[in-house]
């Protein structure tokens, strides 16, 4: 056995990954890496001490439109703000809130782009109702960064259509990554702070999941033990935990 892919309910991730790492086995874990910040930090510490690869399936980091967006963003100057929408109708689950199901994608993209953790986090549960199979929820997350940038993230499983859209605003332009659009990446001029005319940018059509799996396999073959993705995933779990706590405050 050369490596292990963990695609089980999130509450079981830590125990399975811990056992694999203790045995020296590289693992690829679905997001969220764990449901508890303490477990996420413990897994990172164990992977560092045992020098074992733990990779997290943070899928959209490998999307060719996102990688092109990140490269283009370096040319456009400092990021002023980010808005994102992620959701669909379902899945409705008893074990995991949509906050932990959809929001990890939005959060890790923001952290990766801004190369920083937020200085403050606020979460608001905008809507919640029981549906067949579980609970439907609509969340709004607000992240503020020391650079002055802010992020407004919308995550829900009550949408009437699939959503994965990221808008990144600069001084006079904006980049929009929309996984459901024909043109996955568009550069817009800003008119009065709103999106103006846009120009589609060329991106590859490679499937991001293929890129994730290829990276995992190549890392095993070459002995790569890069844990930067796991560190990012730990930050995501800590932020999600903070969002959950924030939403319970009066």
According to CATH, the homologous superfamily of the largest domain is Dihydrodipicolinate Reductase, domain 2
**How much helical structure, as a percent, in the residues?**
25-40%
**How far apart are the termini?**
50 Å
List how many beta strands DSSP finds.
11
Low-confidence regions? none
Which structural class fits the helix and strand makeup?
alpha/beta
Name the beta content range. 25-35%
Mean pLDDT: 95
**Any idea of the CATH class of the largest domain?**
Alpha Beta
Q: Describe the largest sheet.
A: 8 strands, mixed
What is the number of helices?
A: 6
CATH topology of the largest domain: Dihydrodipicolinate Reductase, domain 2
Quickly count the domains: 2
For the record, the CATH architecture of the largest domain stands as 2-Layer Sandwich
Shape: globular
Strand order of the largest sheet: 5-6-7-4-8-9-10-11
Compute the gyration radius: what is it?
Answer: 18 Å
Order of helices and strands: EHEHEHEHEEEEEEEHH
Q: Features of this protein?
A:
250 residues, alpha/beta, Rossmann fold, Dihydrodipicolinate Reductase, domain 2, eight-stranded mixed sheet, three-stranded parallel sheet
What features would you describe in this structure?
This protein has two domains: 4-57 and 207-248, NAD(P)-binding Rossmann-like Domain (Rossmann fold), CATH 3.40.50; 59-200, Dihydrodipicolinate Reductase, domain 2 (2-Layer Sandwich), CATH 3.30.360.10. It has 250 residues and is an alpha/beta fold. A hairpin with a 2-residue loop joins strand 10 (185-191) and strand 11. Strands 5-6-7-4-8-9-10-11 form an eight-stranded mixed β-sheet, covered by helices on one side. Strands 1-2-3 form a three-stranded parallel β-sheet, sandwiched between helices. Helix 1 packs parallel to helix 2, helix 2 (37-50) runs antiparallel to helix 6 (228-248) and helix 4 packs across helix 6 (228-248). The protein has six helices and eleven strands. Helices cover 36% and strands 33% of the residues. The chain is globular and about 55 Å long.
